[in-house]
Amino acid sequence: MTWGWLREDFHTKHIYQALNHMHYVLKATTDTQATKRLKDWLKHYQFHTSGVVSKIAKTVIVREKAMIDTIYSPFSNGIMEGTNNKIKLIKRRGFGYRNDAHLFLRLRLETGH
Predict the structure, then answer these.
(1) Which alpha helices (H) appear in 1-113, and where do they start and end?
(2) Are residues 23 and 52 in the same domain?
(3) Tens digit of pLDDT for each residue in 83-108?
(4) From the centroid of its chain, how far is CA 87?
(5) What whole-number distance in Å separates Cα of residue 49 and Cα of residue 58?
(6) 61 and 82 share one domain
(7) Residues 6+ apart with CB under 8 A from 18
(8) Residue 14 sits in which domain range?
(9) Are residues 46 and 63 in the same domain?
């Protein structure tokens, strides 16, 4: 599936390809599989001609161990992220609260806790 914008811009095309390849890396289910896929990804993109892609790869290198641990971990922080997002939305919608008690009351009402 090739879109016009992929043909037009060199950097966008390579960022898109690198992120799609990273999507494959993130689907690993074991430690060895995650390590191999991430190493292959880094080998392919570390010295890429697109500066943006190589910078992303260098950032991944710094956090390589944490990324491997995260890839195959069965735990997710999705519920916590959703709760934090809901709290931020309530704060934004409230245009500020007179005191903290009102904010906490509103949070309890909307989150059910």
Answers:
(1) 4-8, 10-26, 31-45, 51-62, 64-71, 78-93, 100-111
(2) yes
(3) 889 888 888 887 777 888 888 888 88
(4) 20
(5) 13
(6) no
(7) 41, 45, 48, 53, 56, 57
(8) 4-71
(9) yes
